[in-house]
Design a protein that fits this description.
The protein has 13 helices and two strands; from the N terminus they run H-H-H-H-H-H-H-H-H-H-H-H-H-E-E.
């Protein structure tokens, strides 16, 4: 099971490494400007959100082998995009399909990693995400070499499609058949609503901070190669290094700072936001690719700690019976920022140019820095253990509220 999670995350990282390094060439092939590219990227979310909602039911009904289908389909969707994205309409359609398969694969492979961690009794999820970041770096660099060698755009996408198909075949054999959990472990049908309004609010507030963090992170990941190519006149091969620098720094930072204690969570959040803002400003004023790379590394180091820290705050302040629903509330709102970050850059780039857009990205980090103390306090989760309480039954109680008993386990 542990190997299965590593394989799934590796294939997922390989795909997004190829994509990040190929954005300028995809843009050129489709013949769209920065504003239209930003609009097209919105279709990734349009495909991902419904798929993310549906794949959970598919996993419950058919089991973890759904992951194999999703991963293999992602590789096929990428290859199809590379072959057909010759105008705006085709680009949007291809990105919608990529978003749907990516959203499904994302949820499914995290389910595999979660099951692996439970079965193995040791950390798996964090290491699996590290594998993802590492493969993004390697695939970005390989794609840059392919671009420098003037290989067709379809070549790296075809290569990653083969990787995804191979991963899917492995997962079919390695993952157990049937439902993801034994029937006896399923939650009762009662309590269909995940939260009442009062119980949801703290996690939605944390989600707003997560949205700002993800918007900044994905803005850099999606536009760094475009910035290097368009503003600094680097070749497509060198431009492809930019996403690799970002992903590599994110991976290193997360591994290096992953052991910080809960007492430092607020300080890490504020320091990360300030660092991310400084990095974005440095990119905006960079005269050379070297300075832009330094700024990108600084921005990556700052954004790397933001969302994991927020998830850690939530995790420490929610009981097991509500962990899934609390995490869902936070990640759903946060994912909106991930989707809108590249679009945000595209709109600003159309209005004031890419350098001005990088200043606007710095503004996202400044907003997070300003809002974090306020929203953490309002949520009741501001301290290492929060002001809320994890009740004996695992439910979370807002400050000053009575403990509300859960009628059953929450899946």
């Amino acid at each position: 099971m542990v190997v299965s999670s590593v394989v799934a995350f590796a294939a997922f990282g390989a795909f997004w490494g190829v994509w990040g390094a190929s954005v300028p060439r995809v843009q050129h092939q489709a013949g769209v400007d920065d504003g239209r590219l930003g609009l097209a990227l919105l279709f990734v979310g349009a495909g991902a959100l419904p798929a993310m909602l549906l794949v959970g039911r598919a996993l419950d009904r058919w089991g973890l082998r759904v992951t194999a289908v999703a991963v293999a389909a992602l590789g096929g969707a990428g290859a199809g995009l590379a072959l057909t994205a010759v105008d705006l309409v085709a680009l949007c359609a291809g990105l919608a399909l990529v978003g749907a398969t990516s959203g499904a694969a994302d949820v499914a492979m995290n389910a595999v990693a979660g099951r692996a961690e439970k079965v193995a009794g040791r950390p798996v999820i964090t290491r699996a995400h590290g594998v993802f970041s590492s493969l993004v770096v390697l695939a970005s660099l390989a794609t840059g070499l392919a671009s420098a060698a003037s290989l067709p755009l379809a070549v790296p996408f075809a290569a990653v499609a083969v990787i995804c198909l191979a991963a899917g075949a492995f997962l079919v054999k390695a993952l157990p058949a049937g439902a993801a959990e034994p029937e006896r472990d399923r939650a009762p049908a009662a309590d269909p609503a995940p939260f009442d309004r009062r119980g949801t609010v703290p996690f939605l507030l944390i989600g707003v901070l997560g949205a700002l963090a993800f918007a900044s992170e994905n803005a850099h990941q999606s536009w760094s190669a475009v910035f290097a190519h368009g503003e600094l006149r680097s070749g497509t091969g060198l431009s492809a290094v930019a996403p690799a620098v970002f992903a590599g720094t994110v991976a290193f930072t997360r591994f290096a700072l992953g052991g910080l204690k809960a007492a430092h969570a607020r300080a890490v959040l504020l320091a990360g936001a300030a660092t991310a803002a400084a990095g974005a400003v440095l990119i905006a004023v960079s005269p050379t690719l070297l300075i832009a790379g330094l700024g990108l590394a600084v921005a990556a180091a700052g954004t790397a700690v933001l969302f994991p820290t927020l998830l850690g705050i939530v995790s420490r302040n929610v009981g097991e019976s509500r962990r899934g629903r609390a995490t869902s509330a936070v990640t759903t709102v946060s994912y909106l920022g991930f989707l809108l970050g590249p679009v945000y850059v595209g709109l600003w780039a159309d209005a004031v140019g890419l350098r001005g857009a990088m200043v606007a990205v710095a503004g996202l980090a400044v907003a997070l820095f300003a809002l974090a103390p306020v929203l953490l306090r309002l949520s009741g989760l501001g301290g290492p253990a929060g002001r809320g309480a994890a009740a004996d039954d695992g439910s979370w109680t807002a400050p000053g509220a009575a403990v509300r008993r859960s009628p059953g386990a929450v899946r």
